[in-house]
Amino acid sequence: MSDMRLIVAGAAGRMGRVLVNLIAATEGVTLAGALEGSASEAQGKDAGVLAGCGPLGVSVCSDPLACVIAADGIIDFSTPRASVELAALAAQARIAHVIGTTGFSNEDLQAIEAAGRHAAIVRSGNMSLGVNLLAGLVEKVARTLGPDFDIEIAEMHHRMKVDAPSGTALLLGAAAARGRGVDLEETSVRGRDGHTGARQPGSIGFAALRGGTVVGDHMVIFAGQGERLELVHRAEDRGIFARGALHAALWARGRKPGLYSMADVLGLAG
């Protein structure tokens, strides 16, 4: 099979540069396009030079349609608005779309789900193996311990992160809600301030910290009467997300249309 031709959306960002480097160093894949917003200072620059791996002959541009024509897949760590637009293009072109973007509204998620009827789309709040294994453990523990244990999810990221709670925290919250058989939207508490009263039984709490250059720390706390269980994942290198996203893209190539998760990619679903 020929090399998989990949577009990197958000190519000038932290994750985008890591992905460009990884694609350049990996056999079986090639960089077919590099996308950024029209106002980006990276426009027209060689994506490989920006990423620090040397010229690749692919210039950063803002025209996704021109890139999609010559691609087999998109790896996307951009913005919710851009990801929704790219999902629609992937559906039209019948190419794979891996989405690591976070901060989606319910309307955005509905649009991505609709695009998944025509293209293989892998969306996850976190692409790492460790986090997805953690989500499986959280679901199992939540099911086993039941509502007698309070669930709190704490996360910390670098000072530049713009959304909270993180997509990974929400992924873990969704796993906990599945384990309990409840709706996360109806049970989650996203912030506490002032005189809040006692904790509501059955709620799933979130706390978001921001500072420094932290790649991503997540802790799920199960607090019971006289005992506490803590499940923790610490990301030390953005390369774990890039490797997971690239693995997902290769997995999705030629896959039947659908909206998939990293649990599907890693064989953890079901």
Short précis:
The chain is of the alpha/beta class and 270 residues long.
Number of helices: 10
Q: What's the N-to-C terminus distance?
A: 30 Å
**What's the SSE pattern?**
EHEHEHEHEHEHEHHEEEEHEH
Helix content: 25-40%
Content of β-strand: 15-25%
Radius of gyration: 19 Å
Low-confidence segments = none
Instruction: Tell me the total number of β-strands.
Output: 12
Mean pLDDT: 94
Cross-sheet strand order for the largest sheet: 3-2-1-4-5-6-12
* Basic shape: elongated
**Which structural class do you get from the secondary structure elements?**
alpha/beta
Structure overview:
With 270 residues, the chain is of the alpha/beta class. The protein contains 10 helices and 12 strands. 37% of the residues lie in helices and 24% in strands. Strand 5, helix 5 and strand 6 (120-123) form a beta-alpha-beta unit.
Descriptive key words:
single chain; 10 helices; 7-stranded parallel beta sheet; 5-stranded mixed beta sheet; elongated; 24% strand; alpha/beta; 270 residues
Would you spell out the secondary-structure blueprint of this structure?
Blueprint: E1 4-9, H1 14-25, E2 29-35, H2 47-51, E3 60-61, H3 64-68, E4 73-76, H4 80-93, E5 96-99, H5 106-115, E6 120-123, H6 129-145, E7 150-157, H7 167-180, H8 184-187, E8 188-189, E9 204-210, E10 216-224, E11 227-235, H9 239-252, E12 258-260, H10 262-265
Parallel strand pairs: 1-2, 1-4, 2-3, 4-5, 5-6, 6-12, 7-9, 8-9
Antiparallel strand pairs: 7-10, 10-11
